[in-house]
Amino acid sequence: MGQGDSALIEHEGQTMLIDAGPLDAGPTILSYLQNCGITNLDVMVSSHPHSDHIGGMVDVLNEIPVQLFVDNGATHTTPVYRDLEKVLVKKQIPYATAGWGDVIPFTDDVHIEVTHPDYLSDDMNEDSLALLLTYGDVTLFFPGDCEQCDATADVVKLAHHGSKGSASRGLLHNDYPQDVIISLGRNNDYHYPAPSTMNALTKAGISVHRTDLEGTIVLKTDGKRYWFV
């Protein structure tokens, strides 16, 4: 997918796509969805309107029905964001703005709570929707690009592609998380992940899974334990 973020959640026939990578990621994401037999998305979430998170959304929206689109209410002036606005209106896709304390509808036994933001500032990265997913005893945290967001979770999709501030002290505490996923492009221009971030994760004894080295990362859970496949 390259230098960007995208995560697919599937459970009991329900599907949610969180972000859709950079501008050229659309065909790759569509191919993956089709290979998974997915012909409908119940929810599409935009953590924030930067192009490395919404870049592939227009391609997906043009090919796959989406029942609900959720974002944090922030807008942008970029062509990729304007194109996204146009296709949402054209296809009359139901839209909702989410913030702290909201719950994104999914299934009865998968709880997806918005833990951030409680208000919008002028920092798009820090204003990212942060989602805490709970299924049984297993928790996953998706903070978008919000480096200051933290939660107690088994698995964390690290903020901002493993940037210098992504492994904050608030995030690395007690025995959590056990695993982190870093979504980033190989040989990216930002030299992510930052050495200080990798050092902090290693020191904390956290297992690291990187898309630039492993490609698509698949995690499965039965609500009691989880494993990577």
UniProtKB/TrEMBL annotation:
It comes from the Archaea. One of its GO terms (molecular function) is hydrolase activity. Gene3D superfamilies: Ribonuclease Z/Hydroxyacylglutathione hydrolase-like (3.60.15.10). Residues 2-147 form the Metallo-beta-lactamase domain. It holds the Pfam family Lactamase_B. Keywords: Hydrolase. InterPro entries: ComA-like_MBL (IPR035681), Competence_DNA_uptake (IPR052159), Metallo-B-lactamas (IPR001279), RibonucZ/Hydroxyglut_hydro (IPR036866). PANTHER family: BETA-LACTAMASE DOMAIN PROTEIN, DNA INTERNALIZATION/COMPETENCE PROTEIN COMEC/REC2. This is MBL fold metallo-hydrolase. The lineage of its organism: Archaea, Methanobacteriati, Methanobacteriota, Stenosarchaea group, Methanomicrobia.
